[in-house]
């Protein structure tokens, strides 16, 4: 017999404020491209460190399948004058 997951509210406390999260599924929510961009920008991570974080999260199967982890090339620096 299949039973749909019940929606429950679980308390979550952060810095003295209490929030309630609606939990509807046992499946963890994966991080989307937009959700990943915010902390990378907020923490002022360099491109290399942002890519490293993304790569690790991808290895741990935490990122959504639509998230693309790319490496930026700096070949054009060789040809530009300083």
What report would you give on this structure?
- It contains three helices and two strands.
- It has 82 residues and is an alpha+beta fold.
- A hairpin with a 2-residue loop joins strand 1 (8-14) and strand 2 (17-23).
- The protein starts with 7 loop residues before the first strand and ends with a helix.
Task: For the structure shown, list the relevant keywords.
82 residues; two-stranded antiparallel ribbon; 3 helices; 33% helix; alpha+beta
Question: Which assembly state applies to the chains in this document?
Answer: single chain
Describe the largest sheet: 2 strands, antiparallel
List unreliable stretches of 5+ residues: none
N/C terminus separation: 70 Å
Strand content range = 15-25%
Summarize the structure.
This protein has 82 residues and is α+β, with helices and mostly antiparallel strands. The protein contains three helices and two strands. A two-stranded antiparallel sheet has the order 1-2.
Topology:
Elements: E1 8-14, E2 17-23, H1 33-42, H2 47-59, H3 76-79
Antiparallel strand pairs: 1-2
